[in-house]
Design a protein that fits this description.
alpha/beta; four-stranded mixed β-sheet
């Protein structure tokens, strides 16, 4: 039992079905990983939202999301004393192409930490990112007790940087990861392929069923024809009952032995062979009925065929 279980993975991998299952499992794992299976609560929230509010933070999330709108801006409202750089970096894969600002209340001010994921790795992009991260939280300290108003200041700073060319214009796009597209395409392809296989299989099964039905009908017709000639032979033997004699007894014995084979005939070859034997016995019965002499086949005169179709004319001088 243990050896069979150990050999099962090898047999599974060695088949096309097993390889397809492993590929689907790998693709599903990739989709779960890229979709945020191992993300923390912060990253999981900002994948589809522009605002995160930690438990205990008094923030109207709906109003905050309306203030930010569809800008490439993500704001993390953390509890006082929280690790802002850690919270910002934890959202790296979930906030690609955006400017992230982590905020927490620190007495009468806001403690802020920004991380830009909009630019590239060139020196110019790095310098621009540092400027953006420094400017984005300016002026928010005036509204420590009103987080939504503080967000309005952050949004105003963002719009100014867009007009200055430090941040590219345009809205944030949230799209599923590539593995999800592949899984969706694979599901659609699987449905289409399965439907095509079922359709082709149904057509093949229909053709096979039609061929079997035609074969059964042909065999039934052959058995019916065999039964008819057998009935004719039986009537011939009954008519010859008064003649008696060794030839008649041999014919009757052959007919009795043939009946068992006729009743068990099924295949086309056996039915054809038995029909030939029945026809042979029928000829023997006909010979006995004619007095033991074989029936002669009528022969035409030598010139009958050659003269057929010729028009008879009178000879010259005959009237």
């Amino acid at each position: 039992m243990t050896a069979a279980v150990r050999r099962l993975p090898g047999r599974l991998v060695g088949t096309a079905f097993g390889r397809a299952v492993l590929a689907c499992l790998a693709l599903a794992g990739w989709a779960l990983w890229s979709g945020g299976l191992f993300d923390g609560p912060v990253a999981r929230q900002v994948r589809a939202s522009s605002v995160y509010a930690a438990p205990g933070v008094d923030l109207d999330r709906a109003a905050a999301e309306r203030v930010i709108g569809n800008r490439r801006l993500v704001v993390l409202m953390m509890r006082p004393g929280a690790d802002l750089p850690g919270a910002c970096h934890d959202t790296e894969r979930a906030t690609q192409g955006t400017l992230v600002l982590a905020m927490s209340r620190d007495g009468d001010d806001w403690d802020t930490y920004g991380c830009s994921r909009i630019g590239g790795d060139s020196p110019r992009d790095i310098g621009r990112s540092m400027a953006v991260e420094t400017v984005i939280g300016r002026g928010a300290d005036a509204f420590v007790d009103r987080p939504v108003e503080a967000l309005k200041v952050v949004v105003l700073n963002y719009d100014r940087m867009v007009r200055a060319g430090l941040v590219p214009d345009g809205g944030r796009t949230i799209s599923p990861s590539l593995p999800r597209y592949l899984l969706a395409g694979g599901a659609v392809g699987g449905v289409v392929a399965g439907a095509a296989v079922l359709w082709l299989g149904g057509r093949r099964a229909g053709r096979l069923a039609d061929a079997r039905r035609a074969g059964r009908d042909a065999r039934a017709d052959e058995r019916a024809a065999l039964g008819a000639v057998t009935a004719v032979l039986a009537q011939q033997i009954i008519d010859l009952d008064a003649t008696g004699g060794p030839a008649y007894r041999r014919l009757a014995g052959d007919y009795a032995g043939l009946l068992d084979e006729v009743s068990g005939a099924d295949s086309g070859d056996s039915v054809g062979r038995l029909r030939e034997r029945v026809e042979e016995l029928s000829r023997r019965a006909a010979d006995l009925a004619s007095g033991g002499k074989p029936r002669a086949t009528p022969r035409r005169a030598p010139g009958a065929t050659a003269g057929r179709g010729r028009k008879r004319t009178r000879g010259r001088g005959r009237r």
